[in-house]
Structure formats: structure tokens, C-alpha cells
Amino acid sequence: MQLTWLGHSCVLLTGTKKVLIDPFVEGGSVAGTQPDIVAVTHGHYDHIGEAVTLKKPTVAITELAKYLRAKGVPSESMGIGGTIRVDGVAFTMTHALHSSSVDECGTVIPLGPAAGFVIEMDGARVYHAGDTGLFSDMKLIGDLYHPDVAFLPIGGRYTMGIEEAMIAANFVGAKTIVPIHYNTFDRIAADPELFKRSIERTTDMKVCILQPGGSIDLGA
Ligand code: NI
Ligand code: MN
Predict the structure, then answer these.
(1) Digit-coded pLDDT (tens) for 170-179
(2) Which ligand is nearest to the CA of 156?
(3) Nearest ligand (C-alpha, residue 24)
(4) Do 64 and 83 meet the contact criterion of CB atoms below 8 Å apart?
(5) How many angstroms does the Cα of residue 131 sit away from the middle of ligand 2?
(6) Domain ranges, ordered by start, for the chain
């Protein structure tokens, strides 16, 4: 499986199927990725992104899935702790410590809890934390699902910053950590090199800093 970070929180998994997580890129479009399945962690605009125009089978928490269905998106609803299979790809929804809503004509519509995903495809597992603060049950995510790679937000303000994400990485225990949700905007400025140095000095984990559009290969 190939994992491509398209920027911000947007990750494309390419294996037997193409799975696009949080289809938003700042100042661009994800339409060219042609995903088979979309997964959306929560309703904030920088995560729901182009989910409505892509109109692909979309995995989301019940409230967000209902919202997307009303917009004509064929959505698969699920809840935290559950696992579903879509086209042979397994999606487990995990807890996230964050909010979820969408702004429509000045009205804020709440869309249920925010979430993360553990996605298994072609025998490899990827944890995408979504937007979240640090929570100690990330240990359970590590113990239960043993993800090979974890995508963790490090930008602060709306999510964990570097200090918290270092603890998160230790809780999850994936071999490879990829920092996300930083430097898209000034308000989430963070130095991924500091994150990398701090983790690699104190653990056996590898931090892979990607440029938008950059990929890592998980092998077969
Ligand atoms: Ni958010
Ligand atoms: Mn966000």
C-alpha cells in the first residue's frame, strides 16, 4: 500500500482500492485522485472538504453521514468503536477529542462527535487520528489494532501540538509516524523537524516528514 499526504489532514491510501481521508487541500482540489472510497473524520470544512462534490461512497459517523446523504453522497454511517468493510477495506472508527460541525448560511449545524480511523487494506493498518487532543486511550488503539503507520496532528491550537503528539506517538506505538495538520495556516504553525528529532532521539519509531504530494510505501 502506498500512503500519500496531500497536505493538511488529507491522506490517500492506494492499494487494492483508493481510499481518500479528509478530502481537503488548501487552495487546490483532490478531484484528480479518483478515490473509490472517502472517509471523513468530522464535519469541519478543512476535513469534509470536497466530500459533497466527489459523491463517492463515504464513511462517516452517523450524524455526518446523514448530512452527506442529504447532499446526495452515498454514505456509510458508523459509530466509534465499530468496524465496517467497504469494498474489502476495513474501517474502524476511533475516538477523537474534538468537536464537529458545519457552517451553513451563518448557522452552525452540529454533526455528532469527531472521530479518527484505523483502516486496514492489503494486510496493512493505518491510524489517522483526525483532529484531536491527546487522550490516554490512544494506548488502546495501539494495543488493539497495532497500526503500522500513524498520522498524527501536530499543529496545536485546534489539536495536539508537538509535545502532546510525542506522547500520542508513544501510546499508539506505530513504527512510522507521519505528522499532519500543521503549517497549512499561520495559526497551526509547527516545526516537524523538532517533532522528528524529539521522537527519534528517545524511541525506535521513525518520523516521516512528507511534503504535500509525498508518499511512503508500506510494501506488500
Ligand atoms: Ni476540526
Ligand atoms: Mn482541522
Answers:
(1) 999 999 999 9
(2) 2
(3) 2
(4) no
(5) 5
(6) 2-213
pLDDT at 220: 55
* CA-wise closest residue to 101 among 47, 154, 160, 53: 47
Ion ligand 2 neighbours (CB, 5 A) are 46, 131
Grouping H, G, I as helix, E, B as strand and the rest as coil, residue 193 is helix
Alpha helical stretches, state H, the chain: 45-48, 51-54, 62-70, 138-145, 162-172, 192-202
pLDDT band at 145 (very low <50, low <70, confident <90, very high): very high
Do 20 and 37 contact (CB within 8 A), yes or no? yes
Gap from CA of 181 to ligand 2 centroid (Å): 7
Give CA angle at 8 (130, 53), nearest 5°.
Answer: 85
Measure 47 CA to ligand 1 centroid, in angstroms.
7
Residues with CB under 5 A from ligand 1 (ion): 44, 131
pLDDT at position 219 is 76
Fold of the domain built from segment(s) 2-213: Metallo-beta-lactamase; Chain A (3.60.15)
Average pLDDT, the chain: 97
* pLDDT single digits (tens) 99-118: 999 999 999 999 999 999 99
